[in-house]
Prior knowledge:
By secondary structure, the protein is mainly beta.
Amino acid sequence: MLRVRRGDRVNLTFDVPDDLNVAAHNMDFHAVYGPGGGADATTIAPGDDPTQISFTADYAGVFIYHCAIPNMDQHISSGMFGSILVEPEDGLPEVDNEFYLGQHEIYTDGDLGEEGHHGFDFDAMLKEEPTYVVFNGQAYGFTPDGGVPMAANTGETARVYFANGGPNLLSSWHAIGNVWSRFYRDGDLLTDPDRNVETAPVAPGTTAAAEMEFPVPGPVKIVDHALTRAARRGALGVVDVSGDPTRDIYDADP
Ligand SMILES: [Cu+2]
């Protein structure tokens, strides 16, 4: 996730290592006024030198960026997307922890759970039937088993930035055992946030941001509440909350 403040001048160099540069790529920043959100001027083909754009971050919010060449759906499904946060001039409310998750679908010619390399499956993508739906490129990566834990302590707060790369599926974004106490729909940071939202739609090609409190220890599971994706295809991450039991809020053994 890129992080700038409204009014910042951003000078961006876009390069692809020679050994990976086997197709054209570019970047469409939804935070940029300009042709293709910068895609036209950043397009780079195999053998090309790095491209550059310079833009002023003129409107605040949380936005997505993604590769936008003609095979953009395949490229996004290969992970070519992310988020750019344009903070308002006065910044954002202070929180103790910040996390970023980017959801997307992976369409493969292998079966769910099958070991080894899978090739890309255009037919599966055409039918919008992914093998995996993941956060930050890995099924169940942000879990105790996945090796990239998220952690917080009781009494702390967190803001989660969430981008749905898609390319095709709407996410039903939910925190199990918690609530989005302040929910910034579609990454709109200027309107007062919605309060105590349980599950919220995040369309492909947009973001959300949300704040949580952690009054109680234990895991908070962040999922796509289209639950087959969470239970079987990888769209689940865990914030492990440490601290002493706060029995006035929740008592598992009264
Ligand atoms: Cu690309």
